[in-house]
Design brief:
12 strands, Rossmann fold, alpha/beta, N-(1-d-carboxylethyl)-l-norvaline Dehydrogenase, domain 2, binds D-Mannitol-1-phosphate, EC 1.1.1.17, Mannitol_DH_CS, 6PGD_dom2, globular, binds nicotinamide-adenine-dinucleotide, 20 helices, oxidoreductase, three-stranded mixed sheet
Length: 490
C-alpha cells in the first residue's frame, strides 16, 4: 500500500486533510524528543496556531533522542502523520502538517546544533521523559557525577538532552542569532526552572561556562508549562485502523484522547507561535496549574498503575472501573492533594478530579498500567512526595500517597502480581534498588531501597512517612491489593 507523504496527501479524505499546505511552512521551532506526545500535543497546537493566524513561520524541526525509529517512520512520509482522537467508539483522524524535518540526534548531532543556532528558530521545545534531565532525585539539580553528562562536557558530540541544549546555545551565542525560548513540556513541577538550573549546572562543567551562563541570562528564557493530553504508545492495531481510514499506510500514527490542555508561562523575549489562538493559555504563573495536574491527575494515574498492575490489571481504563481503586484515587485527590494546592484560577478541584477519572475511563485508549508505571523512581517525587511533605507539614495523614509509594516498591522489588504472574519493571533505579536490598523483599528492605532510589533524607528520617510505607507494604503482602484498598477506602 502507498505511504502517506506530500505526494499522496491529495488522496487523503477531505475531512482528514490539513488546513495548511505543508510545503508553504518555514521552520521556527526545534523539538527534542519526537515521541508520541509531541506529535499529539505541541505539534497540533502549533499547526492550529499557524492556521488561525496565517503566520507560517513555525514549522518544526524534530529531533529523535536515542533511536532513529521515529525518524525512519516519518522521513519517508515527509514528516506527515495522522492523529487519531478516540473517545469510546468515536474516532476522528487528522493529518498533522507541522513537522517538516526529522533529525536523528545521535547521528546528526551537528545539524541539530545548527538548527538551534538558526536565527529563524525562536523556540526549542522538549518532551524527553523525566529521567532524561538527569536530575539527582533528592536535590532535583543536575547529577554532575553522571558519566554521560561528564562525557558530553568533555567535548564529545553531545548525547544528553542538557548537553545538547547547552552546545546548541553556545553555537547560537557564536552566531548572534537572537533570543530563544527553551520550553520543557515534560511532567515535572517547575519544569522550566529545573531545566534552566540543569543547563546552568552543566555550564559549570565547561571551560567557557561562565560567559555562556551570562549570555543565556540575557537571551534565553525557560518558560514553565503544564501539558495535558493522554497519549498511549501506538499499537499496530492503531496503525492498521488509521491506514484504512486514510487509504494510505501511516507508520507514524499517534492515538490520543480528544481533551488537550496547555498552560505556558508568558516569558518570551522573541517572537513565538500564537498558541493562545489555538487553545493554549499564556499565563504569568503556571505553577498552580502544574501542581494541580501533577499532584492530582498524574498521582492518580500512578495510583491506578501501581495498584492496578499488582492486581493484574492491564489498562488504566479497567483499573478505574474498579470502585475501590477509583475510591482510593478520589481519597488521594480530595483529602490529601487538595489541601496542599494553591488556588488555580478557573479550576474547580472537585470537577477536575471527576473529569480526570472520566478521561481515565476512556476504553478506546488502552493506556497500559505498565506504561504509566514505568520510571517510577523519577515520577514518585514530582507526583506524590510533595503531597506527602506538605500533608505532614499540615498534620494531615498522607495515607493514600504512601500506599502508592508502597505499591511502587512492591512492583520494583517483588516484580510479581498478587496472583504470582511476572510484572515487567522499567525503572532506571531498579538495579541499584535491587542491589541495595540484596534481593530481599521484606519490610526491612524498604529503607535501603528508598535510599537507593534517591528519596530525600528528610523523608527517609521521618517515621510518619517510612512507618506508613512499611505498614502498607506489609498489608499488600498479606492481603493483596483488592482487600487492602477495600479496607483503606472504607
Ligand atoms: N504520553 C502522554 O500522555 C504525555 C502527556 C503529558 C506529558 N507527557 C510528557 O512527554 C514525555 C514523553 O512522552 P511520550 O508519550 O512522547 O513518550 P515516547 O516514549 O513516545 O517518547 C519519549 C521521547 O523521549 C526520548 N527519551 C526517552 N528517554 C530518554 C533519555 N534517557 N534521554 C533522552 N531522551 C530520551 C525518546 O527518545 C523519545 O523521543 C513524558 O515522559 C512526559 O513527561 C506525556
Ligand atoms: O508520560 P509519563 O510516562 O510521564 O507518564 C504517564 C502518564 O501518567 C502521563 O503521560 C499522562 O498520560 C499525562 O501526563 C496526561 O497529560
Amino acid at each position: 500500500m502507498r505511504r502517506l507523504s506530500l505526494n499522496t496527501l491529495g488522496e487523503v479524505p477531505k475531512s482528514s486533510r490539513p488546513d495548511l499546505d505543508p510545503s508553504q511552512l518555514t521552520t521556527g521551532v526545534v523539538h527534542l524528543g519526537i515521541g508520541g506526545f509531541h506529535r499529539a500535543h505541541q505539534a497540533v497546537h502549533t499547526a492550529d496556531a499557524m492556521t488561525a493566524t496565517g503566520d507560517t513561520r513555525w514549522a518544526i524541526s524534530a529531533v529523535t533522542q536515542r533511536s532513529p525509529r521515529v525518524r525512519d517512520q516519518l522521513q519517508p512520509q515527509d514528516g506527515l502523520y495522522a492523529l487519531a482522537l478516540r473517545d469510546g467508539t468515536d474516532t476522528r483522524v487528522r493529518v498533522v502538517p507541522s513537522v517538516r524535518e526529522i533529525l536523528d540526534g545521535p547521528s546528526e548531532a551537528e545539524e541539530v546544533l545548527n538548527r538551534i543556532a538558526d536565527p529563524a528558530v525562536r523556540v526549542v521545545t522538549l518532551t524527553v521523559t523525566e529521567k532524561a534531565y538527569r536530575l539527582h532525585p533528592a536535590t532535583q539539580r543536575l547529577d554532575t557525577g553522571d558519566s554521560e553528562i561528564r562525557a558530553d562536557a568533555a567535548g564529545r558530540p553531545p548525547g544528553t538532552v542538557v548537553g545538547r541544549i547547552a552546545a546548541g546555545l553556545r553555537r547560537r551565542r557564536g552566531t548572534d542569532a537572537g533570543p530563544l525560548a527553551v520550553i520543557s513540556c515534560d511532567n515535572l513541577a517547575d519544569n522550566g526552572a529545573l531545566l534552566r538550573q540543569a543547563v546552568t549546572d552543566y555550564c559549570g562543567l565547561l571551560p567557557d561556562g561562565e560567559a555562556l551562563v551570562e549570555w543565556i541570562e540575557e537571551q534565553v528564557t525557560f518558560p514553565c508549562t503544564m501539558v495535558d493530553r493522554i497519549v498511549p504508545a501506538t499499537t499496530e492495531a492503531n496503525r492498521t485502523e488509521v491506514t484504512s481510514t486514510l487509504g494510505l499506510r501511516d507508520e507514524a500514527t499517534v492515538l490520543a484522547e480528544p481533551f488537550s490542555q496547555w498552560f505556558v508561562q508568558d516569558d518570551f523575549r522573541g517572537p513565538r507561535p500564537a498558541w493562545e489562538r489555538a487553545g493554549a493559555r499564556l499565563v504569568p504563573d503556571v505553577r498552580p496549574y502544574e501542581l494541580t495536574k501533577l499532584r492530582t491527575l498524574n498521582a492518580c494515574h500512578s495510583l491506578l498503575a501501581y495498584l492496578g498492575g499488582l492486581a493484574g490489571i492491564d489498562t488504566i481504563a479497567e483499573a478505574v472501573e474498579i470502585d475501590d481503586l477509583a475510591g482510593a484515587a478520589r481519597r488521594l485527590a480530595e483529602s490529601e492533594v487538595r489541601p496542599t494546592l494553591p488556588p488555580a484560577e478557573g479550576i474547580d478541584h472537585h470537577d477536575y478530579v471527576e473529569t480526570t477519572l472520566h478521561r481515565f475511563a476512556n476504553p478506546a485508549l488502552r493506556h497500559t498500567t505498565s506504561q504509566v508505571a514505568s520510571d517510577g523512581s523519577r515520577k514518585i517525587g514530582p507526583r506524590l512526595l510533595g503531597t506527602v511533605t506538605d500533608s505532614l507539614g499540615q498534620s494531615n495523614a498522607p495515607e493514600m500517597a504512601t500506599l502508592v509509594v508502597a505499591a511502587w516498591l512492591r512492583q520494583v522489588l517483588v516484580q510479581r502480581t498478587d496472583d504470582g504472574l511476572a510484572l515487567e519493571v522499567n525503572d532506571p533505579a531498579a538495579p541499584t534498588m535491587l542491589q541495595a536490598t540484596e534481593g530481599r523483599t521484606d519490610v526491612a528492605s524498604l529503607r535501603p531501597a528508598l535510599a537507593a532510589a534517591g528519596i530525600p533524607d528528610a523523608l527517609l528520617e521521618d517515621s510518619r512517612f517510612t512507618g506508613r510505607v512499611e505498614g502498607w507494604y506489609a498489608e499488600l503482602d498479606r492481603a493483596g491489593v483488592r482487600a487492602t484498598v477495600r479496607t483503606a477506602v472504607r
